[in-house]
Amino acid sequence: MTADARVRDWVDGWVLSRGAAPPSAEPWGFTVHVGLESHVSRHVLGAVNDGVREGDVREAARSVRATGAQLKVFADPERVLPWLGPGWEPYDLGDVLMTAELTGAEPPAPPAGYRVRTWTRDGVTRVLVTDAEGTFAARGQTATTGASTVVDMIETSEDHRRRGLGRVVMGTLQAAARAGGARRGVLAGTPAGQFLYRSLGWRTVAPLTNARRRPATAA
User: N-acetyltransferase domain: which residues (predicted)?
Assistant: First the structure.
């Protein structure tokens, strides 16, 4: 199958961001070997929304047997979950795939008492926000492949929320990605982050159904 370009951008950027193995093409999408006990591999359907076919989901679910494997399908969970079969459990329902055009806007300055640090290694740019004592406040990273960048690992400490730090991180990452040649961004947004992303001009492409392979139970 020909994968949706936004899915391919997300897969390629996520692999770079997390240091995972290069994606392998499958008839239904992509397999990525991650190498963690709780996340040994992820298997991503290449289509979105109405382009996701029941037969492809069932084939992917049947072909993946490893405990710790994850399945990512960009379609409504109400459609997808009945197609998975035994051995799969959903998690993190409410996530979505989002995209945005990157502008040349200057990132906002941090609030008084906060410091922003930015560095790039091996194609991944990281932003760290700390308070005046150097304590962690917020972070994020982006990985650029060609004209696309994946925004990843956005986090704000509970002790430092509602101070605009998420906007600082996102703005700094987007400016760095555009300076590095990216013109569009893609991310997987959690329910907690979607309000921020939409306020910054990001648009929802599709719901994201997450499922993981349960350990086999003894007979």
Answer: 86-219
